[in-house]
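Workshop exercise sheet. Pairs work together: one partner reads the sequence aloud, the other fills in the structure field after running the prediction. Swap roles for the next sheet.
Pair: D.N. / O.F.
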Amino acid sequence: MPDSRVVKLAQTLVNYSVDVQEKDLVGIIAQPLATPLVQEVVRAVLQRGGYPYLLPYSKPLPTLGYEGLDQIFFEEANDDQLQHQDHYWKILNEDFDVRIFIQSQFNTRGLSNIDPQRIKIRQQAYKDISATYFERMSTGSLRRVSTLFPTQAYADDAGMSLEEFEDYVYGATFSDSEDPVGEWKRIQSEQQYLVEWLNGKKEVQVKGPNADLTLSIEGRVFINSDGKQNMPSGEIFTGPVEDSAKGWIRFTHPAVLLGREVTGVELHFENGRVIKASAAQNEDFLMSRLDMDKGARYLGEFAIGTNYKINRFIKKILFDEKIGGTIHLALGKGYPITGSVNNSAIHWDMICDMRDGGQIIVDGELFYESGEFKI
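Structure field:
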């Protein structure tokens, strides 16, 4: 018998998050460790009349499919091979109706020793495909959701046993509850009030022991992230006006990307652009990402985490960016649905805890303080 929590998660993904319809082309991206969840997702897609396709790709970019081969790819590929676009990946992002991505790594450090310049070449080669992906999401022609299947590697990163980590994942996704979809609809309703209050506002100030930053949100739209694109979810976000950020922010949690942890990141902005950056650890990697392309030094996202069931840092941004009482900013690519026009090969989220006196002031009114909304 499958774990009932796995069955409920699959049904939530298929029936609620991406709402599979009859004859939808459904790409299911996963690794072998996620087989129990993949089986239930396939079952649910078939029950809805969709066409399931299994695509075993690794994140952040397609290489040779199965995890472990990505390291070989980056070690052995020449520049032409690095720049070659995978035809399957291209079709998935351009032609499919639905994308369900299940993170399920057995090794979270596989790319930690790969030259960042080689990864940069690969990311730049997929910039157009990435732009298509973001644009189709904004128009609704591509429905997608990302989730996670608990593995020992993720549990180790989080400092938990596998059983503890499974409980954490299924609790955060409400898969251990009687009615997961009902819980996500409740969150949607609660967050919608905040989104409606913010839309139409002009200026955001972030103040506190870790920030003194001002952003323009004039003409931009806040999005209610309620389990439709990420599972778990629980955040509200927008894309700041590209040339508006001024001031500084220090991120209280490590910025984890491509198997590397960059700690103590501090960024200073002027006219929207990062003009000064530092880190306590892996600063060279931080600078290599900032120099990825023109858009990498500008913000693509400003967001507030609202999920208080996600209450600890586990080194998985899918969860960590939703921690209740935190904000996060993303360098690089913005979501067109918010009004953002920033374009980049990267979208790198970084988290700042606000529970120690941090404030968000919107158009001169106190909106948020020490992790709590004040409106």
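Discussion prompt: The first helix runs from residue 4 to 17. What would you look at next?
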